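dude i think i finally got it to work??
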Amino acid sequence: MVEFIVSIVVTALMLAVYHWYAAKTPIDKKMTWGEAMLTSTYVFAVFFWVYGVLPHYWLEWADKGLQWRPDRPFELGGLLRAQANGGWFPFTISYLHMRDIIAVIIYTIILGANIWYWSHWQGRAARAEAKVKATDEPSEFGRPLVREGAR
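look at this
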Protein backbone atom coordinates (compact mmCIF):
# COMPACT_ATOMS: atom_id res chain seq x y z
CA MET A 1 0.00 0.00 0.00
CA VAL A 2 2.83 2.38 0.83
CA GLU A 3 4.40 1.85 -2.60
CA PHE A 4 1.12 2.61 -4.37
CA ILE A 5 0.54 5.79 -2.36
CA VAL A 6 4.14 6.91 -2.89
CA SER A 7 3.78 6.27 -6.64
CA ILE A 8 0.68 8.50 -6.69
CA VAL A 9 2.59 11.23 -4.81
CA VAL A 10 5.54 10.94 -7.23
CA THR A 11 3.10 11.19 -10.15
CA ALA A 12 1.62 14.36 -8.67
CA LEU A 13 5.10 15.84 -8.20
CA MET A 14 6.09 14.99 -11.77
CA LEU A 15 2.96 16.68 -13.08
CA ALA A 16 3.57 19.68 -10.81
CA VAL A 17 6.91 20.15 -12.59
CA TYR A 18 4.99 20.37 -15.87
CA HIS A 19 2.66 23.06 -14.47
CA TRP A 20 5.61 25.03 -13.11
CA TYR A 21 7.44 24.85 -16.45
CA ALA A 22 4.33 25.74 -18.46
CA ALA A 23 3.68 28.78 -16.27
CA LYS A 24 7.22 30.16 -16.47
CA THR A 25 7.97 29.47 -20.14
CA PRO A 26 7.14 32.26 -22.60
CA ILE A 27 4.76 31.21 -25.36
CA ASP A 28 7.05 32.30 -28.21
CA LYS A 29 10.21 30.70 -26.76
CA LYS A 30 12.05 28.38 -29.15
CA MET A 31 13.62 25.32 -27.57
CA THR A 32 17.28 24.59 -28.02
CA TRP A 33 18.47 21.11 -28.91
CA GLY A 34 19.57 20.45 -25.34
CA GLU A 35 16.25 21.62 -23.88
CA ALA A 36 14.36 19.42 -26.31
CA MET A 37 16.46 16.38 -25.35
CA LEU A 38 16.02 17.08 -21.64
CA THR A 39 12.28 17.60 -22.04
CA SER A 40 11.82 14.47 -24.13
CA THR A 41 13.72 12.43 -21.54
CA TYR A 42 11.52 13.87 -18.81
CA VAL A 43 8.34 13.08 -20.77
CA PHE A 44 9.59 9.53 -21.31
CA ALA A 45 10.21 9.21 -17.56
CA VAL A 46 6.69 10.46 -16.82
CA PHE A 47 5.21 7.98 -19.32
CA PHE A 48 7.29 5.15 -17.86
CA TRP A 49 6.11 6.07 -14.38
CA VAL A 50 2.39 6.53 -15.04
CA TYR A 51 1.93 3.70 -17.56
CA GLY A 52 4.31 1.21 -15.94
CA VAL A 53 5.15 1.83 -12.30
CA LEU A 54 1.83 3.23 -11.02
CA PRO A 55 -0.39 0.37 -12.33
CA HIS A 56 2.25 -2.18 -11.28
CA TYR A 57 2.09 -1.03 -7.69
CA TRP A 58 -1.71 -1.16 -7.78
CA LEU A 59 -1.62 -4.76 -9.04
CA GLU A 60 1.04 -5.71 -6.51
CA TRP A 61 -0.90 -4.17 -3.62
CA ALA A 62 -4.15 -5.85 -4.71
CA ASP A 63 -2.42 -9.24 -5.03
CA LYS A 64 -0.22 -9.23 -1.94
CA GLY A 65 -1.66 -6.65 0.44
CA LEU A 66 -5.39 -6.97 -0.19
CA GLN A 67 -5.29 -10.69 -1.10
CA TRP A 68 -7.56 -10.23 -4.14
CA ARG A 69 -7.41 -13.77 -5.50
CA PRO A 70 -9.50 -15.58 -8.13
CA ASP A 71 -11.00 -17.93 -5.51
CA ARG A 72 -12.63 -15.04 -3.58
CA PRO A 73 -15.99 -14.04 -5.09
CA PHE A 74 -16.75 -10.33 -5.20
CA GLU A 75 -20.32 -10.13 -3.93
CA LEU A 76 -20.54 -6.55 -2.57
CA GLY A 77 -22.60 -7.47 0.46
CA GLY A 78 -24.72 -9.97 -1.48
CA LEU A 79 -25.73 -7.44 -4.14
CA LEU A 80 -23.56 -9.04 -6.83
CA ARG A 81 -23.94 -12.66 -5.69
CA ALA A 82 -23.87 -14.96 -8.71
CA GLN A 83 -26.79 -17.19 -9.67
CA ALA A 84 -24.52 -20.18 -9.17
CA ASN A 85 -24.21 -19.14 -5.49
CA GLY A 86 -27.91 -18.44 -4.99
CA GLY A 87 -27.99 -14.79 -6.01
CA TRP A 88 -29.52 -12.90 -8.90
CA PHE A 89 -26.38 -11.73 -10.75
CA PRO A 90 -25.90 -13.67 -14.02
CA PHE A 91 -22.16 -14.37 -13.68
CA THR A 92 -19.47 -14.73 -11.05
CA ILE A 93 -17.09 -11.85 -10.39
CA SER A 94 -13.98 -12.54 -8.38
CA TYR A 95 -11.69 -10.09 -6.66
CA LEU A 96 -9.13 -10.78 -9.40
CA HIS A 97 -11.62 -9.44 -11.96
CA MET A 98 -12.17 -6.33 -9.85
CA ARG A 99 -8.42 -5.84 -9.56
CA ASP A 100 -8.13 -5.88 -13.34
CA ILE A 101 -11.14 -3.60 -13.83
CA ILE A 102 -9.56 -1.06 -11.48
CA ALA A 103 -6.28 -1.35 -13.42
CA VAL A 104 -8.18 -0.59 -16.64
CA ILE A 105 -9.79 2.42 -14.93
CA ILE A 106 -6.32 3.63 -13.87
CA TYR A 107 -5.08 3.31 -17.47
CA THR A 108 -8.17 5.12 -18.76
CA ILE A 109 -7.65 8.01 -16.34
CA ILE A 110 -3.98 8.21 -17.34
CA LEU A 111 -4.85 8.21 -21.05
CA GLY A 112 -7.42 10.97 -20.53
CA ALA A 113 -4.88 12.99 -18.55
CA ASN A 114 -2.31 12.39 -21.27
CA ILE A 115 -4.66 13.80 -23.92
CA TRP A 116 -5.54 16.75 -21.69
CA TYR A 117 -1.88 17.62 -21.02
CA TRP A 118 -0.96 17.56 -24.71
CA SER A 119 -3.99 19.72 -25.50
CA HIS A 120 -3.16 22.07 -22.63
CA TRP A 121 0.40 22.56 -23.88
CA GLN A 122 -0.70 23.12 -27.47
CA GLY A 123 -3.39 25.61 -26.44
CA ARG A 124 -1.16 27.92 -24.42
CA ALA A 125 -1.01 30.58 -27.14
CA ALA A 126 -4.78 30.67 -27.61
CA ARG A 127 -5.34 31.04 -23.84
CA ALA A 128 -2.78 33.86 -23.60
CA GLU A 129 -4.36 35.64 -26.57
CA ALA A 130 -7.84 35.30 -25.05
CA LYS A 131 -6.56 36.67 -21.74
CA VAL A 132 -5.02 39.73 -23.43
CA LYS A 133 -8.15 40.27 -25.49
CA ALA A 134 -10.36 40.08 -22.38
CA THR A 135 -8.31 42.71 -20.57
CA ASP A 136 -8.19 45.01 -23.61
CA GLU A 137 -11.97 45.11 -24.08
CA PRO A 138 -13.81 47.89 -22.25
CA SER A 139 -16.38 47.13 -19.59
CA GLU A 140 -20.07 47.49 -20.27
CA PHE A 141 -19.78 51.08 -19.03
CA GLY A 142 -17.15 51.95 -21.67
CA ARG A 143 -14.16 52.13 -19.32
CA PRO A 144 -11.09 49.91 -19.71
CA LEU A 145 -10.88 46.90 -17.41
CA VAL A 146 -7.20 47.49 -16.70
CA ARG A 147 -5.79 50.82 -15.55
CA GLU A 148 -3.39 52.38 -18.06
CA GLY A 149 0.22 51.48 -17.32
CA ALA A 150 -0.76 48.62 -14.98
CA ARG A 151 0.65 45.95 -17.22
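Helices lie at 2-24, 33-65, 95-122, 124-136.
im so relieved honestly
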